[in-house]
Write a structure and sequence with these properties.
It contains eight helices and no strands. The chain is mostly helical and about 180 residues long. Helix 1 packs across helix 2, helix 3 packs across helix 4 and helix 6 crosses helix 8.
């Protein structure tokens, strides 16, 4: 990256104008620093830091201000990395809370009767095999939604939705049963 203010200003102007070469130049010079800043501020693994740096460059594409020196750019990028790390940590925290709540919502403090367990097993056999497998992985194997999503090639949110729908279907079938 040229150190002259005019060249940096021209590069940033190019990024703001949508020039892929200007973005590539900025990316090449600053991406590794962004990853390092993400790691220094969070201590998280490489995947998290790479994602945070990538998120930072999405912000660069959408909203980089006109800066004319490397010090200003470094300061802005570091603040942006920090903000993207916070966004990712908050999203992760919300996901963990949802998963914990899901576990709480599905556990009864009262032990189910043998009859109810038998009916539930029977209803599980009638479920779509993929949905039954997801329920098994979630509640018997204790896998996270992220892990289940990887097994089925879907996003964690999609896995969560499918599991919730399967639970709702089971609940409805059990409640509709004549001897419930």
């Amino acid at each position: 990256m040229p150190n002259e203010p005019h060249d940096l200003g021209a590069t940033i102007a190019g990024v703001r104008a949508g020039d892929p070469r200007a973005l590539a130049l900025l990316y090449e010079h600053w991406f590794d620093r962004c990853v390092a800043w993400a790691h220094a501020s969070t201590g998280r693994d490489e995947a998290f830091c790479l994602d945070a740096a990538q998120d930072t460059f999405m912000t660069v594409i959408r909203a980089i201000p006109m800066l004319h020196d490397e010090r200003s750019l470094a300061s802005w990028l570091r603040k942006t990395v920090t903000a993207r790390c916070i966004d990712r940590l908050r999203a992760e925290s919300r996901r963990v809370k949802r998963e914990q709540q899901s576990r709480i919502d599905t556990s009864d403090s009262i032990s189910p009767s043998d009859e109810l367990i038998d009916r539930l097993r029977e209803e599980l056999r009638t479920l779509d095999p993929a949905a039954a497998s997801m329920l098994d992985l979630r509640y018997r194997a204790g896998m996270t939604l992220e892990s289940i999503g990887r097994v089925f090639g879907i996003a964690p949110g999609a896995a969560d939705g499918r599991i919730r729908r399967a639970q709702a279907a089971l609940r409805e079938r059990i409640e509709e049963a004549p001897d419930a």
